[in-house]
Records
---
Amino acid sequence: MSAIGHPLRSRLARGPLLCDGAMGTLLYARGIPYDQCFDALNLTQREVVLGVHLDYLRAGAEMIETNTFGANPIKLGAHGLADRVRDVNWHGAKIAKEARDIFGQAVFIAGSVGPLGRPVAPFGRITPAEARAAFRSQIDALVEGGADVLILETFADLTELGEAVRAARECCDLPVIAQMSFTEDGRTRYGHTPSEIVAALEALGVDVVGANCSVGPVPMLEVIQQMVACAHVPVSAQPNAGFPTLVEERYIYLSSPEHMATYARKMVECGALVVGGCCGTTPEHIAAIGRAIADLRPVAARAPEAITLRASREEPPPPVDQPSQLAQKLRRQFVISVEVDPPKGLDATKDLDGARLLRDAGADVIDVGDSPIGRVRMSALAMCYLIQQHVGIETIIHFTTRDRNLVGLQADLIGAHAMGVRNILALTGEPPRGDYPNVTAVYDVDSVGLVRIIKRFNDGLDLAGKSIGHPARFLIGGALDMNPETLDRELPKLERKLEAGVDFFMTQPVYEPDVLDRFERRVGRLPVPVLVGILPLQSFRHAEFLHNEVPGITIPRRVRERMQAAGASGREEGLRLAHELLVAILDRIDGAYLMPSFGRYEVCAQLVREIRQRIGTGAGRARA
């Protein structure tokens, strides 16, 4: 496991985790024929795949597997898709992540990797090196797409599974769950016993070892008992819902949810820590298993009730004349802000948990995006309110002019102030795209116009000059790009924002001190505080994507070369680079603006803790 640690480790230390069930069974039930490539649906019918994930999440699953079981070059090649390995796996991970965002719970995304479909030497013609390369091409894309965990499953050949594990370890530092299939006599197809499998996989450094598929829960129970007896790592169990039976030209699995649940509880009682289902299992089976093991699972892992939005007499909104905590801290101490994006669905639990983790690590404020890249998410204002009410940490709302006309814009400002959301990052916003390419953006004003409107609110007037009752106490932020290559274009915007009255700036990601050096030589010290953007890199591919495809982000060659050299340790190297940069510029900046990648709040939480340990909680140089 990575030195950074992983939430799966701490979660399993607290008790059994409920995984999802079959993907293919549900796709087949939705009318997809078995002779069609299920993995390719990630490209052609993503809503169908998304629906399956959501069904399992509603059933209580804490881990959902990507629809990529057969998405390796050999199996995809049989459907003429050998050149789409990256696309199929990347989209598979993204669809699962979208389901998690919509559902709003902190569940794990497990990148599913199955066998190649052809035997590996000495039983076949595929060499171990070729097998490893094939697995690596698949795993690379799953990692890039944002998988939290890798689950290598339904392997009959220990040699082939070993190459898949080695490929995973070469690619990344994510936890690896490795599962073999056993026959009714309790051995693999090639005669290995459960204890032999455990010993071999533990020697390869897997994080969880287990069994799935092939047999139903009754014969699998004995296999799991033997594994638990000798394993030094957690054990997983995902049996089929019995054996398939052909009924009216459809394959039916006959094990009922109650039967599956009974044996799932037995497996957990004997020591299994990851439990779910394979072929034939449905959301009904998973829900039944969840009920059967409810008293064995930690309270925090059970399906939570939706958050109720309620007024709190103990924590009323601050008085209208009270400045924000951030306004009181800036230029008096080093400020740390961390970004949290609102969910795509109705439940914000996952992101509230992330905000709570960051608060406990020592963050001063949480900034919340306003439907980033124009995609539909929960209102940023609603998310800010939930964070301030349920987590108890102040927020900065990213407030764009893209989606609001002048009436809606001012109405939302009044509402934000009434709810205690007083820190605003004034943005124009990216043009809408993605799910609604034909939607019309508003842009009655740009970010500078928005700053002027907010300043009028702070004078107690709306844009038409009418009184709003009392002067508002908004703290107004502006975006700043320090990149030397775009500075000529940025400076006029900077001057206009300062003239309009911004109170502080938050920058695009910076990756080396030279960016700050060149900016200060050109511009000098700004008259308002600046929070420097830090986006920890996850991998070399992540760095290349940001540098080449995301506007406003430039990553120096030296940094990208270090990420390339880091290989599978990319996440730790990215954190190391961020830490080195902050150490180099701590005494020159007012604060840091941290941006998690793929919603991995634990990475930024560690960085927050490291900053606090260096400067002292609540400390930092005063910049009068």
Note: Residues 142 and 499 are 46 Å apart (CA to CA).
---
Amino acid sequence: MEPSEADVDTGFESLSGGTGSDSTTLGGMAPGSIDEVCQRVLLWGQREGGGLARVEYSSEFDRQRVVQRLQRELAQAGVAWTEIVLPTRREATDIVRFLRERLSQVPGGVVSVTGFATAFESKTPLADALRVVNFNREELVALPLRQLWWMTPVLLQTSLHAMPDLHGWFRPQLQLSPAVRERELSDTTIRSAVTPRLGSEQVRGVNFEDARQRSQNLLTEFFTARQAGAADQDLLMTYLLPALESLAEVGAQRELRDLTSQFEGFLGSLKLGKTTEMTTAVSRLARLYSDQGRYTEAEPLYVQALEIWKIELGDRHLYTATSLNNLALLYYSQARYAEAEPLYVQALEIWETELGDRHPCTAQGLNNLALLYYSQGRYTEAEPLYVQALEIYKTELGDRHPCTAQGLNNLAGLYCSQGRYAEAEPLYIQALEIRETELGDRHPDTAQGLNNLALLYYSQGRYAEAEPLHVQALEIKKTELGDRHPDTAGSLYNLAGLYHNTQQHQQALIHIQQALDIYVSTLGTNHPTTQAAMSWHELIQQAMDKLS
């Protein structure tokens, strides 16, 4: 039995730039990422006097993550944080009065204002309601407060025309992209491209129960807004997609699959226009399908998004490059390598031209193409790409960055596959040490580093050294991700392989059975990973029968 492969990066989802005067990036942070938005708001929030800023967001889950981090970091800087949630379905004059009164009660610091998407009663056109807000703008910004207004894409587009005077006062103007997360540059397993991509900011506080509760809250808001007559586009982007993504974020695959099935009718009836917002939503939905192994449903959505970006933005736009990458990743997950390769090459060429040959996104494109070559056994072509990506990470992000650890890990995996164990071992050890130091010894990525080193020892027949590392990795994943997470099943799968090859068939059977139970409940019986586990369960059972 072959254990699961070492973890490598399989790509990232859609990039998105900021809007207005703040469209440049900070120190290698992806534009629109949680890191970038937090850093900009943190710098803005510590300035003296009043001010007005806006953040366009589609995912309530991501917005909450930004808020939690800002609260913590502003408190450390001695800056007060106040939350104001607007009431729902009121006349515009009542909303203005409510906001003015609440602002007057805040002693100072940063004020986060949310709820604009559902604040106004449905009888009045949204544009007319926003014009009332614009008319009262001077009263709203007169206080020496730093106000952070959160706006959904649809609301923002309407407000740009309905209250242009007020928008002229928003500095900075930011966009939080739902798909640009820290996991963009984190690593995952070759074996299971459908499992969640946990990045360097996956925190222990984001657990299954938190995600389930957040998802339920969003669904409650979904039905309330739907009853009030909200547009399908708003329902999808403001409530349903964030509800699904909150489950995907922690790997709650069974709940995600059930919830997606529950809304199949709604999703199938959507009229998907060619706006930026809806095309981004299509990509997000395709990713959710892909992560569940539902490639047949994901492919036409990815193709549709790519065609729209090409028509609306051109063949050389960053959105087009990312869409090419997304479709290539889907093909890669299905082992359709001949179709994936030209798309990866095109995406890489665009990133090199538009961002430069030293940008981390370019490094990621090199990594993706190298992974494709690696999977085909084209090691001679993969190696220089992995080396180049690692060198960019070291130069641009530093020797201690998690992305550098990823690059070390990927190159070590290549050496291991070639039997170059003496070259692979120090790289695996270095990558593990970076993760332990930068992410902590309980982080899932650290567990994956332990898993990789264990696989190296396993490949050399050093089973006594491999076993405690696999056991430690399994213990971390159980604690941090839960007993029913697909990544936990991966560690059980690996231990089953080790026990099978050391003739400990009873232990092997116990572990493969546990892994199979998790895969069936989270991924379903038809998923390729589940099918592989079923096959090995049968082989191990046969070995037991022969012995008896």
Note: Residues 208-227 form the longest helix (20 residues).
---
Amino acid sequence: MHVIGENEKNHEKAGLSMKTTPFVFICSALIIGTLCSEQNIAIAFWNLACISFLILGFTLHLFRPKDNLHYFIYFLFLFTQLGFINSHIQKTKDTSFTSPQSYTTQCEIIEISSNGKKWNKGIALVKKYTNKTKKLSDEINEKILFYTDSFSSKTINEGDLIELKSQIQPILNKGNPGEFNAVSFWQNKGIRALTFFTNLDYQILSCAKSNLKHDVKTSVLGDFQKWLPKKHLGMSIALFLGDKSFLNEEIRNAFSAAGAMHLLAISGLHIGLFVWIIFSFLRLAPKLFTRRIALLLSLIFVWSYAFLIDFPPSVLRSVLMFSILSIGYSVKGSKNQLNILFFSASILLLYNPMYLKDIGFQLSYSALIGITLCYTPLVNSVKLNNRIIKYTWSISALCISAQLFTFPLVLFYFHQFPNYFLITNIGVALFSGYVIGIGLLFLLTAKITIIANLLGVLFSFSLTTLTLFVRKIESLPASVSKGFELNIYDLLYLFLICVGIYWLLFQKRKPFAGGILMVILAFSISAKRFQQINHKHLVLFNANKFSCAYYDSKNIYFFHDNLKKNKITTLLKDYNTVFPGDIIISNIGESNYELKSKKHSIVINKNNKKINLAVDDQNYEIQYRQNLEPKSKIKTIGMPWVENSNIRLNKAYFFNF
């Protein structure tokens, strides 16, 4: 049953027109220009396209002078050009560290985590460097990723200047199925190289001066460590400082499988609750804090908080949007949320075009576009009188709206989908205010012993309740669907279908046609997954010791040469998301193995430290060392560092059956 009300009228204002939503077109033009720049389009071709664009505008102006379409063409041209030029200017330069070499560098520590792990991650700014072939360089100011031992992570601090002697190498993907794209992730942060070092490899040249941001972070971390059980430390730091390095793998996997990982990534949910809590608290004294003053102080708080956690894109987007919305409502200006959404995106892309490639940025804006366009008509499509059912439906409508444009990205980046996302998000909506509200009050009163002790217990209880709920969802049968491997064309195809569904259901009011398109969407995804999980193959992994897996659409037979347990876990976790199945692990150092089907056979054996692999009628010898002798009749498979082999495992290699 369709209901028309005030919300419906507001939704109609969100219709796409140059008059009501100019920033939709501005942002779209910026994105087109940025994408063209990222594709390294030749300047000559780009100039030709720009001239053609201008000629089109002049032609329209001459032959249709009363039509304002030519102004629209000029408008798009201006911002497309701006996006192209801005992306060119801010594009990350190639790294100075193009091959693995030993360097002596002067580095300023920008970020460092100290979570007690064997290796702790950080970011350093290399100011100068030298190696065997190059004297001390001029200022280069290039960021590098580093991993250091637990002792060093507690000794050096953000802002310290150190002299470091270590091997620096470019960041490379291993090319194994389902693995995280580290190159793209770090390049978006302006980082292209990494290094490992211990306390023996550096000396501190100068210590950091007193830093308010560092002191506040240290104080917050100290409060968590003092009042909370160790098992809740990782979740509390992720919820309030945005640092997920303290989370253990069990918690990560549970939240990921249940579809609640967004709760552990600071975003609009957290910022909105912070604004509401601070605003409500200040309004308890209305004579001291008027609505505008309370709102201003709330915004100052969230901007200070964003500065404290170094302005991650999702937080910057949320704070900017809340600020614009709040100011707009205060001065009775535009309340077009779609326009405000794209206005904030335009500002962020002008500030840093690389945000466009950030996964959090993409997911965040996709979810908000879905909510802005679909939530109001969806929630009003059913008329309910019962308050509890109505509230449950409103949360469900919110989750469905957010998922409409985010699930293609989830399948593309993470290769899996949480089947019970709706149940999870209803629970998260109920728990999140309670958890974040108590956590915020705990931090604000952490120096008052009696209150901190009480709120610490309540906060721990809320985290325990939330964790139990998420683990219960994760333990349900078929909680996660795995086996989605999409390319960029699949992603665009799914987005086009989602746009079509929105257009038919919410704009044209054609439920039958929209339903058919939804069936097409479901069929397309199912067909793609069916093709993926029925792909029988033997894959050889890029690892420091020989390892391979045979996949028969139901089982993963994994073989390895004394590979460490954590390496096996990492390889299989990534591989299993793309090719799901029951895992059977075997060590080839303990026995020989033979797998046979009607058409194919695989034999793996290890004799006298030599590994031999036979695939059907072809024999291979696994090479661990460089072999300068002429190749024998038996073909060789070389490890990543072995160059003179028939097959080199510097990425995964497939034998397709």
Note: The two ends are 53 Å apart (CA to CA).
